[in-house]
Amino acid sequence: MTQSAARISALPAAIRRPIPRLGHARARLRALAGRRHFWGVAAVAAATALLHGAFEVQQYHRFRVGGYDLVIFDQAIRDYAHGRLPVSMFKDVHDAAQVAPGYAQPFSILGDHFSPILALLAPLYWIWNNPQVLLLAQAALFGLAVPSVWAFARRALLRIAPPRKAAVGAYLTAAAFGLSWPLQEATQAGFHEVAFFVPLSAMLVERYQARRLGQAVACAVALLLVKEDAGYVVAAFGLLLLVTRRVNGEPLERDERRRYRITGVALGVGGVAFAMAVLHLWIPAYGGRVGFYWYYGQLGPDMLGALKTLITDPGYAFQVATQPDIKINTLYFLFWPYLYLSLASPLCLLAAPLLAERLFSDKPEHWTLDQHYNAFLAAILIMAAADGLIRVVGGVSSLRPRLPGRVLALRRARPWFAVGWPALILLFAVVITHTFPIRSVFNAGQWSADALTTAQTAATAMIPSGVCVEADDDVATHLSSRDQVILLDQVPRGCPWVVLQTAQNSYPLNDILLAVERAHWLRQNGYQLVFNQAKVYVYHRV
Fold first, then answer.
1. H-helix or E-strand containing 487?
2. Cα separation of 506 and 191, whole Å?
3. Buried b (16+ CB within 10 A) or exposed e, 256-266
4. CA distance 353 to 341
5. pLDDT of residue 120
6. How many Å apart are CA 295 and CA 41, to the nearest integer?
7. In Å, how far from its chain's centre is CA 128?
8. Is 513 exposed, middle or buried (CB count within 10 Å of its CB: 0-12, 13-18, 19+)?
9. For the stretch 237-255, what's the b/e string if a residue is b when 16 or more beta carbons lie within 10 angstroms of its beta carbon?
10. pTM of the prediction?
11. Would the pLDDT of 10 be above 80?
């Protein structure tokens, strides 16, 4: 034995023993990779992320991702990456009315919404300083929700089908989720906080079904960091725990049921209290107006007034929630692709606050299909539908054998529902895709630049780095990584560089005539036209 070996052998056993955490982590990783369905589920998750990522990149390079809201998040998270408060000049200047009177500091997005979880993306800017990193991160986070959807669906379908059919049905369900139209619309809308809500809500529901209460509560707490209204979803989860008697068909034991009740009360009260604290304490502390996002004037001037209307005049409240008809159309598209089976599951309780928040809103963007708001419901509704399927099929199967032969035949055929229903909803997702935006990924012509895109690219090349620029909403995203970008609107901001276009309507100058008037003002106030191509213009003032 060498001298060094003798010294090592003389050390206490606790010191000579290898680090257990590292060894256990490697063992867990090897065990996970060796599971039968690991690579299959990983493939569906990767395909989901790749599809949405490709669509994001395509939209970005064709100047179809608006600066409002991508530049806001880009500027704020870049500040996180440099150890500063998340300030967005884009938001600070354009939405100055949101800032509380007397607030003299640059307006932080922490006074806009409570989304500290966005700081987790800051390290990505150390690798690539470009807003596209947020688009790709969102695509990856959507893909991260797939394993939870698959695991939930397989565990549910095992109640009516053998393992092989249940696994096939779970793959089809996961694929339908990855292709679902709410995720497509969220991808087209650019980056938003929903990127984190989708995987966390999927994990929450799956951990609940797996009877891992502690892990489900951890997911609920993490949801609170995504957005302030997630507190109401957490409260709804608390209500779900209160009414839970069985989980995935198995009854809760007495002690377990008691834990669910105590946890449910804590989450129910805590979720609402947290949302109220953020609204009335956190947001004002960072310069935001408390009532800036109050879109419920039809119900009352504040939360108490709205609750009073809901209780004392439910008929009027129902009218508000169902008019105009576009609200019903959105509900139709949310539920019919799953054959309305989501409504047969108590998991639908988690969707109730999000639906109420939109249906009672005065803001038209909350009612439509073409926004990211529907993606908040994507994982919840498809998992609720899988649970609803089991409840409906199980209810038919529990009928007495003396019932007519058709019922008995349906009872014997129930394993095929585990494959037939997921196959049908995947077919619906594929068919719907033909009318939704992500289909452009499969169109070769959509990957090439047209005259407008070429002009916009050339216009951005005219702008030097490190300058202040007022930019068209679509062009702003291509400048924010190197310039101080402000959204071009009807109010002159004094930047030496201005980029505008009159080829098509662009937010917030939603009328081409407004853009023409803005160009006329620039010429009258000392700006020189230095670029003109395909109705895209760059003005500069020395």
1. strand 484-487
2. 18
3. eeeebbebbee
4. 19
5. 97
6. 40
7. 22
8. exposed
9. bbbbbeebeeeeeeebeee
10. 0.91
11. no
What is d(CA 255, CA 260) in angstroms, rounded to the nearest whole number?
Answer: 9
E strand or H helix at 28: helix 20-33
Q: Would you call the peptide bond into 163 cis, given omega within 30 degrees of 0 as the criterion?
A: no
Count of other CB atoms within 10 angstroms of residue 530:
13
* Pairing relationship of beta strands 497-501 and 536-540 according to DSSP bridges: antiparallel
Question: Which residue from 50, 93, 85 is spatially nearest to 68, judged by alpha carbons?
Answer: 93
Task: Give the span between the Cα atoms of 169 and 156, in whole angstroms.
Answer: 10
Residues 418-466 have pLDDT tens digits of 999 999 999 999 999 888 889 999 988 899 999 999 999 999 999 999 9
Q: With residue 15 as reference, give the H or E element that holds it.
A: helix 13-16
Whether residue 478 contacts residue 508, with contact meaning beta carbons closer than 8 Å, is answered with no
What is the C-alpha separation between 10 and 401, in angstroms, rounded? 74
Using DSSP's 3-state secondary structure scheme, residue 538 falls into strand
pLDDT for the residue numbered 1 = 46
Whole-angstrom distance between the N-terminal and C-terminal Cα of the chain? 80
Look up residue 302 and give its amino acid. D
Domain boundaries, the chain: 44-441, 451-540
DSSP state of 532: E
The pairing of strands 484-487 and 468-471 is parallel
* Spatial CB neighbours of 211, under 8 Å, sequence gap ≥ 6: 247, 248, 250, 256
Angle at 245 between CA 244 and CA 249, to 5 degrees: 105
d(CA 254, CA 240): 17
Residue 142: how many CB atoms within 10 A of its CB? 29
Bridge partner list, 246:
251
Buried b (16+ CB within 10 A) or exposed e, 402-440: eeeeeeeebeeebbebbbebbbbbbebbeebbeebbbeb
Pair 316, 309: CB distance under 8 Å: yes
Residue type present at position 465: S
Dig out the tokens for 276 from the structure: 């109220």
Beta strands 528-533; 246-247: pairing state: unpaired
The rounded distance, in Å, linking the Cα atoms of 28 and 9 is 29
**417 vs 355: CA distance, rounded Å:** 29
Residues 82-123 have pLDDT tens digits of: 999 999 999 888 888 888 888 878 888 999 999 999 999 999
The answer to whether residue 468 scores a pLDDT higher than 80 is yes
SS3 content of the chain, % helix, strand, coil (to 5): 65, 5, 30
Give bridge partners of residue 127 from the DSSP assignment: none
CA–CA distance, 276 with 303 (Å, rounded to integer): 10
Pair 335, 342: CB distance under 8 Å: yes
Residue 37 CA: distances (Å) to CA of 404, 423, 446: 40, 19, 35
Predicted pLDDT of residue 4: 43
Asked whether the beta carbons of 189 and 371 are under 8 A apart, the reply is yes
